[in-house]
Design a protein that fits this description.
The complex is a heterodimer of chains A (165) and B (423). Chain A has 165 residues and is mainly alpha-helical. Chain A contains six helices and two strands. A five-stranded mixed β-sheet of chain B has the order 3-2-4-6-5, with helices on one face. Chain B is built from eight helices and 27 strands. Chain B is of the alpha+beta class and 423 residues long. The longest helix of chain B is centred in the first third of the chain and has 16 residues. In chain B, strand 9 and strand 10 form a beta hairpin. In chain B, helix 2 packs across helix 3. Chain B is elongated, with a radius of gyration of 25 Å. Classes of the chains: A mainly alpha (165), B alpha+beta (423). The interface between A and B is large, with 64 and 78 residues.
Amino acid sequence: ERLFHQRDHSDLQSLNQHQAQPITDPHTAELFLSKYGFLKPVNWEEFLHEEPDEPDFSFLEFSELNIEEGFATPRSRDANLQNDQKLHDPQFITALRDFQRLSGLPVTGVFDEATKKAMNQPRCGVPDIEAEIADPSPNNTTDKNMDQTSSEVTETGRNPAVRRR
Amino acid sequence: KRHLATAVSKRRRSGRDVGVGYMAFSKTVLRWRLIGEGYSSQLSVEEQRYVFRLAFRMWSEVCPLEFIEDTASPLEEVDIRLGFGTGRHLGCKQRFDGSGREFAHAWFLGDIHFDDDEHFTGPNAGKGISLLKVAVHEIGHVLGLPHIHRPGSIMQPSYLPHESSFEVDWMDRKAIQDLYGGCRGRFNTVFDWIRRERTSFGEVVIRFNTYFMRQGWYWLYENRNNRTRYGDPVSLQSGWRGLPLGGVDAFVHVWSRTSDHVYFFKGSQFWRYDSDQDQVFRRDPEGVTYPRLISEGFPGVPSPIDTAVFDRRDGNIYFFKGALVYPFSVDSRRVARGYPRPLRSVFPPLDPRDHPESHLDAAYFSYSHNALFLFKDTSFWQVASVRERRRRPHLPKNSLLPQRQIHEQWFDICNVHPTSLKL
């Protein structure tokens, strides 16, 4: 049972003390920008129910995760060097500016405190910028006699908000 | 992927220009389920299901979609599956990151995953991450909305804890309606209910609210906000005690120097409503018991009626049935001489082809618009007012201006699925 002292469980302690790795440096910022599509549009629909490409150790859950994500290992010298180079990488700067613009922050392209704080906000995991969904034209994936599943969908067009300039 | 590809069919919505959003269900009733293996360990199962029922209802209140919680059908018949998990979860390739940052994700075909490492709380808990707010956001994705980087949008990617109560705002409503269209439908009656209230200083003030009734439920319409009250529709018996459960045919407010009576009509009977006690009279101050037969209270008027409206200018109640109009004089207690007459002659069209002809749904005098409207199906006609005729003297008396769609003047009057009516 999770530890709590208030009758309404409002002070529920989380069992696992597993915290998401905060965004602290350009490297983790780059992972963030990549995950949410600011470096390259994400084909989000591809991510559902893909078979995991490595053995499923979910029952191990926390200790394995820490190791795998590699944040806990001491930072090597060249990682620092890489961070500095990232700060001047045009692609990184452009992605940062896009993020700052969408987040209503001053568009500086600089990985400043306000940007860091915005990146660490609780948020939805769906990317902000998705790749255009491939257009399975009716004649090669669906034919008229196909039984419609209960989830018929129609596309009404591309979302201009996610179009990259 | 194969399943995904076979499940997806694409049809470009005809006549719709491209708007916000990219994919939409072409089904209007969607089934959802909180997956048994994916219950949260932080809230009781009932709390979780209640929050999700409310979240789906909030979308249903602003677009033509209806949602049913389906805990029995085979899983492939369930359109939207929700579940909680931590780290690697529910066969999903996207691993959750633990407490902080990513709290949930969703896909347009219907899967929503919540990170159970987050501190999710019930509505109005005032702390933690509101599961209701996150659920409404993720359902927005399932329905086809992307992230919308607009302050106040429920589809903003980041969670803003300081917003205590939140609703689907105007722009988000337009976004989802751009995918699914606006809410259309017929109404049994539409009326402005006027009542006296006493201010804290003891002054008597007269207030009114606009109501739309459809079968056994109703909406309060907030004219100044161009939308229905948050949380409507509600069931008729919860707000109008004593009225027939299945709804009414007409509402009439006889408001003159000598009389201030509110009546509801249904079938062959009518009730008088006690606006002070907010319920129907069983026996009114004059000793009359209700319900009464329409033929007794309004001799010469047939029943059931289609609708009725009181005209303060001539003191008549205009009863409508079929293609005929029966003006009933409240003072002389009888149908006016020379009536009934055809609707078309009493309310002549400006354009001969643009007229409701018969079987009106509602006749509604709006104090907000200071105009009389005739409703039929999803259209309405405004009766040319005196002011209008002063501007355009050639207009015949009570002529009907060109018809318009109800949902283009009164917005977002949407059904919810009966199973979520009681939320």
